[in-house]
Write a structure and sequence with these properties.
The chain is α/β, with parallel strands linked by helices and about 120 residues long. The chain has helices at about 1-15, 25-35, 110-120, and strands spanning about 15-20, 45-50, 95. The protein has a three-stranded parallel sheet, sandwiched between helices.
Length: about 120
């Protein structure tokens, strides 16, 4: 029901889908749904805190470049420290908020709220 409802709305409106972008819970489900089920190229954008991303050191100096991100090979994330998470590879784009913090979740919330407000014409 969730997948069918999400796809119906996104395909009908050609909406951009925005999530927290990590490979966990509903964010991973949304990414997988968008990748597997859409015949249209509709953006699935993940907005996350840079300081909690597993493997983030490989992203340094990549501003404005396309980088192949390699999440932890562990399907249960057992190889990922508790203060880090994988980006969900099924998202089409990512915005990473970097305020210099490390291991602190939720630092992207203000950026995400402001972006969503602008995109919705607020």
């Amino acid at each position: 029901v969730f997948r069918r409802g999400l796809l119906g709305v996104v395909q009908r409106t050609r909406a951009w889908t925005i999530t927290g972008g990590t490979q966990a819970g509903v964010m991973a489900l949304v990414g997988k749904t968008m990748l597997e089920e859409t015949s249209q190229e509709l953006p699935c954008i993940g907005i996350a805190t840079y300081g909690v991303i597993y493997g983030r050191e490989k992203l340094k100096g990549s501003r404005g470049k396309v980088i192949a991100y390699q999440p932890s090979n562990s399907s249960d994330e057992s190889g990922v420290p508790a203060s880090q998470v994988n980006l969900d590879p099924n998202h089409s784009h990512f915005l990473l908020a970097d305020d210099g913090s490390e291991g602190e979740f939720g630092r992207e919330i203000e950026l995400r709220a402001e972006l969503e407000d602008v995109l919705c014409g607020g």
